[in-house]
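Researcher: First entry.
Model:
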Amino acid sequence: MNDNINEELAEEIVDEISDEAENTGEDIISDEEKIENYDQMIEENAALQDKYLRIYAEYDNFRKRTAKEKEELYAGATADVLKDILPVLDNFERALQYSGDDLLKVQEGLQMIKTQFADALARIGVSEIPAEGEQFDPELHHAVAHSQDESQPANTVTHVLQKGYIKGERVIREAMVKVVN
């Protein structure tokens, strides 16, 4: 009995939906239209997947290309720096080959090599960090010793134990200093 009531209720609902569809002018989608819509969705999905794969391949190529360019840029910069520094090494080798006993000439030669090396560093933008007599700056100086001196202002660098160097805003090596407390 319940089955008959359910069947009758289902038939009434289908009739009402059909009547509403006829009154509003809506068509009930046929199986053929459903298959056509499904096929369209499959085609759109394939097109989107192809587009995704192409974009991913472009991105991967871009990533590889920029990594290669970065390596080439680094290698070029290194070669440029070494081109400026290698003549200093050449002069040191010449100085070591010098077998003369004239200490004054050896000292002059070493002074010239030091000047040449400082010029090479300046050409690549490296400069010495000012330290002695300056106010202690923990960004630029590394205090390895402290002393008491009433004639000097507090936190003043009194002695440089090892020079520091900077390139632009980047500290290459902090100056090792002695500071007055």
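Researcher: Second entry.
Model:
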Amino acid sequence: MVPNSQLATAAFSNCSQPNEFWRDDFEIVLPYDVTYRQAERILLSAVAQVPASANAPRQPGNGRP
């Protein structure tokens, strides 16, 4: 356990995942008339435009595209 005061004042690295891929949480808002299939195509197409993302494993932890 690390006290919040240490986290707020010190630099640290998370070395528990030794690969180059990581995930983050963010919100994407699409119009209500976009179906889930359209949304999936839109998002996968956008990710495929970023070379590093296109090479990332699709499922976390299994290392397979």
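Model: Note on the second entry: The chain is about 35% helix and 0% strand.
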